[in-house]
């Protein structure tokens, strides 16, 4: 199998999904050639800095603006001003990515971000490529930016998305509820006691894990300050700040006066271990983080969702009793303490997480991809015979 995976480095989720997918392919077909392309960066590194930098700064400084753009473009009618501008830019960029496709000669193209989905759909519509396209939607609700009739198969995180996508014009038989690809590390088992001892924490106490994604975004310091003032001695805290060095320094300072034992961690590749030893996860509702938590059967406490995509993710989680929300994190201590002290509630939420997790997604996703390739090979053979 020659697989070209197209992603975009807007946050960590899309890239991590691409890397997990690459591992899935090699597991079931070791002789494969797989190439992951950071699409916009490949086309123009300067443009990548402008677009991705602008996107991330908008999320940090004015997230409400992103929410407005999300709602304006939520319809599948792609003729509004914002969508029209994006479409013109994408058409130009699509021709740039064509050379990479022709050079690699993939059997299949797989997209883990909506931008390259549009690029390859344009190329396929114009007849410049005739390669199966698979799209992995890395959130828990669809948006019009992902939806194109040229896509052969959609892999989605949950069954709730299917009817909405059908309403947007996608064939039911093209949609597969298989989950977002997560690293094989999250399928491994880890001894809780060993992990907590490594962190100098108490294996007999409950664990609150706090994360804000790879960028450490959100009101983590405010939430930690509230929890650190708790008189509850039966809990302890692990905070993962990602690449946010300012947040790490601030929390290290706050932890010195904390009433609760705390371990502050920066960027780590052991998120899987820390999820497995925790009782609840306080986080922003990013698509990949949700999928990882569900695999670990870890109840979620959600804060500061990005308007638009993460708000939709939050709606899904609350609807199915997989999480509670603490809004922007103000006055959240009692709500978190009440959840942590209710063994029955945690048990129900853990059961729901297990129900919506996708522990066998690796084999099933590989099968969908492989099936698309085989169908194309059969079509080519039939065409050759007719000629």
Automatic annotation (TrEMBL):
Pfam families in UniProt: Glyco_tran_28_C, MGDG_synth
Entry EC number(s): 2.4.1.46, 2.4.1.-
GO MF, one annotated term: 1,2-diacylglycerol 3-beta-galactosyltransferase activity
Subcellular location, record wording: Membrane
Listed Gene3D superfamilies: Glycogen Phosphorylase B
Family under the similarity heading: Belongs to the glycosyltransferase 28 family.
Descriptive protein name: Monogalactosyldiacylglycerol synthase
């Amino acid at each position: 199998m020659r697989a070209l995976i197209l992603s975009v480095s807007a946050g960590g989720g899309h890239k991590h999904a691409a890397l997990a997918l690459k591992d899935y392919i090699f597991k079931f077909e070791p002789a494969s050639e797989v190439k992951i392309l950071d699409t916009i960066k490949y086309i123009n590194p300067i443009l990548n800095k402008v677009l991705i930098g602008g996107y991330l700064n908008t999320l940090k400084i004015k997230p409400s603006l992103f929410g407005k753009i999300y709602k304006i473009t939520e319809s599948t009618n792609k003729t509004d001003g914002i969508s029209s501008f994006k479409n013109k830019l994408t058409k130009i960029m699509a021709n740039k990515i064509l050379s990479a496709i022709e050079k690699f000669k993939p059997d299949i193209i797989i997209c883990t971000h909506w931008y390259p989905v549009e690029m390859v759909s344009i190329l396929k519509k114009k007849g410049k490529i005739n390669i199966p396209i698979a799209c992995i939607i890395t959130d828990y609700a669809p948006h019009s930016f992902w939806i194109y009739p040229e896509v052969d198969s959609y892999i989605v995180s949950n069954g709730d998305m299917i009817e909405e996508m059908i309403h947007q014009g996608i064939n039911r038989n093209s949609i597969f509820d298989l989950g977002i690809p997560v690293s094989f590390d999250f399928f491994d088992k880890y001894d809780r006691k060993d992990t907590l001892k490594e962190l100098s924490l108490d294996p007999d106490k409950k664990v609150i894990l706090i994360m804000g994604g790879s960028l450490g975004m959100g009101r983590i310091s405010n939430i930690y300050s509230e929890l650190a003032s708790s008189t509850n001695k039966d809990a302890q805290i692990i905070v993962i700040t990602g690449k946010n060095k300012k947040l790490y320094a601030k929390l290290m300072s706050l932890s010195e006066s904390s009433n609760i034992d705390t371990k502050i961690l920066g960027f780590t590749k052991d998120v899987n271990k820390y999820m497995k030893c925790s009782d609840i996860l306080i986080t922003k509702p990013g698509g990949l983080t949700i999928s990882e938590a569900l695999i670990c059967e870890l109840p979620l406490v959600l804060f500061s969702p990005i308007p638009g995509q993460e708000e939709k993710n939050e709606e899904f989680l609350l609807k199915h009793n997989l999480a509670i929300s603490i809004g922007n994190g103000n006055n959240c201590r009692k709500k978190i303490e009440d959840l942590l002290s209710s063994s029955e509630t945690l048990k129900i939420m853990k059961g729901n997480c297990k129900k919506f997790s996708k522990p066998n997604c690796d084999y099933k996703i590989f099968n969908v991809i492989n099936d698309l390739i085989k169908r194309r090979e059969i079509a080519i053979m039939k065409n050759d015979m007719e000629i």
